[in-house]
Amino acid sequence: MQRTRRKVATSSPLKRGSSTGRSGSPTKSARAGSRQKKTVGAGRQSDTDAGLVEAPDTEAVNASDSSLAFTTPRMRDRLARLGIFRFDDIVLHLPLRYEDETTLTLVSEAPSGVNVQVEGVVAETDVKFRPRRQLVSRIEDDSGTLHIRFFNFYPSQQKALAVGSRVRVMGEIRQGLFGAEMIHPRFRVLRADTPLPDALTPVYPTTAGLSQDSLRKLVARALSEIDLSETLPEKLLHSLGHDSFAATVRLLHHPPPDVDGTSLENRLHPAWQRVKFDELLAQQLSMRLHHERRSRIRTHSFPMPTRLPQRLERALEFELTGAQRRVLKEIRSDLGRAHPMQRLLQGDVGSGKTIVAAMAALQAIESGFQVAVMAPTEILAEQHYAKFSQWLEPLGVNVSWLSGSLKRKQRDAAIEQAVSGDTMLVVGTHALFQEQVVFRNLGLAIIDEQHRFGVHQRLMLRMKGSDSDQQPHQLMMSATPIPRTLAMSFYADLDVSVIDELPPGRTPVVTKLVADARRDEVIARVRNACAEGKQAYWVCPLIEESEVLQLQTAIDTFEHLQAEFPDLNVGLVHGRMRAQEKAAAMNAFQSGQCQLLIATTVIEVGVDVPNASLMIIENAERMGLSQLHQLRGRIGRGAEASVCILLYQMPISEMARERLKIIYENSDGFEVARQDLRLRGPGEILGARQSGVPMLRFADLETDLALLEKARDVAADLIQSHPQCVEKHLSRWLGGRQDYLRV
Ligand code: ADP
Ligand code: MG
């Protein structure tokens, strides 16, 4: 008899806490699955993926070489959605939670409000209409009578509950009008003396069209046929105090009834610890191998520059901070090596990353190599173009500009300059990645706000110079600080430099939370500020979906505020404007001609107008933490005390309230990022999901720091002294997918 799948989700004593298992929810897994499918599909036919690792060239594949060929294409498709591409992967498709079907309770003794399993004989089954259509069965065991009711049911269920059938039903017993009853219980019809299972029943993350029963069967088959032998050296296993891999996965798929259910559900059980450790280890190994592979690639090295950077530094109207000097030194020494740099330059908004990038660029340029500077938005790219031109043109360095919105002729001209080597530094948006843009001799690629470029790693591959064996050095910049755990895991293959000091003379931004009802006060404040010669931003989110989401459009706000402030020059900038209009609006604001700039979040990154000291953010409750922090970073850049007012509209959700509280209480970008990680999980913060870095399914960076640290140490050790273990471990955990990691 089939189980009624829909009821699998009824609660059990073991269920509690499982919903907090972040990485394990079915939607999450399904999403992860589709991601992986995409990643793999990008390079190869997914049908042939199975078996890639172990038998890449054999056509005939059977179960023992890890293929899923014994299943139907439809089944394979569904499994792929769960991230299962090889037979081996099934072993690591671990339960979300468990149900206890190992014991029976007598009807008369069943406590109410708790999941129990009762066994009895069907004495009566009827479809009744009181008050609505329902299937009711009366079941009797040695102690009493139980009614079970279904409001939605299939004829097959009615048939299965024929009088005289022996059934086991699972659910909560309640006292109804006619005595003990269960609503929509899960039930199973028994053949003669079906024994009670001797293990808890696993409940797996699944997807439409794939039943728990099918998954359980696949798992059982995998556990008996797949090679579960150890990937770790025995001595190491001992010192870590872990059980063998085989024992671990057997326990997790079929826990004995006396297992500590709580620790299993909380994923703190030693078996879970082993699995999480293995997962983190695989990640560390792949990152480390990638790092090593990269360090073997050769590229041009640029000797320590002398002339150009010195001249630039002398021309600056400020002194570099100690932190800027320190990171510059790190970058310079990388550029002096014959291996491609891959360095992430981190620094809070306003910490002065751009000048560091410019100094680095000069090192390549002085050696006769070209530099590409790439930014995620037109506005930011344009600002960079202005800055780099201002700094470098006086030194005789040709700077040019390339964006998707340029007219064909200008574009062709810019491309021609890059190809011919007339221009030494090209600033642009992702138009820079386009096929035709082949640099004569690209030596350094600088990518600002790198996390905005989801697939930057793969894109970067195309940014080769014409001499295509040479990979350019890469400097990535980000104002989204990476908390230590993320840096240690997802960014373990990058070298990181941190600017941990703001330029002097900055005054911290004061953040205020104001309910939208008090808008008038805010308007008065803007009026006063502008009257004193200050400038202000007014940020409106989400212009396009505004109708649906009832957000004010930037255009409405613009018109409204223009009417409100007839004697001010009010500007408008939003994502749908043409590049030229956008540039004109930004220039007017930059030059101080415009006092109040109404903007969508296009100004989120990189805009730099030091005289602006007031910012109003509308519907702040709808924005993400890092977005708010970035926006707020646009002010507080001059000596003037700056104020950021977050307008919110009631009612707001718990989550939104928490976000506003965090941004209100913290001005330190690292702390904001840490809290963001806590609220959203790592994938979304870094766009890592798209970047090809393996996501973690089981380990949780927030709680598993100790395991992560151990995995890092062990990874170094294994690569040194047990390469065959490394290979086996990666094959088990990443299968063919490690090929798709960034190279
Ligand atoms: P971010 O790190 O957010 O990209 P920017 O590079 O845009 O920051 O720098 C912010 C502002 O600080 C710019 O106006 C820049 O010219 C200025 N700046 C950078 N370094 C210094 C410094 N050492 N002293 C004073 N001002 C600086
Ligand atoms: Mg910047």
Give a written overview of the molecule.
With 743 residues, the chain is an alpha/beta fold. Among the domains are: 107-189, Beta Barrel (OB fold (Dihydrolipoamide Acetyltransferase, E2P)); 307-499, Rossmann fold (3-Layer(aba) Sandwich), CATH 3.40.50; 509-666, 3-Layer(aba) Sandwich (Rossmann fold). The chain contains 27 helices and 22 strands. The longest helix is centred in the middle third of the chain and has 27 residues, at 270-296. The radius of gyration is 31 Å and the shape is globular. The chain starts with 25 loop residues before the first helix and ends in a 9-residue tail after the last helix. The relative contact order is 0.10. The structure holds adenosine-5'-diphosphate (ADP) and magnesium ion. The site of adenosine-5'-diphosphate has 19 residues, from helix 12.
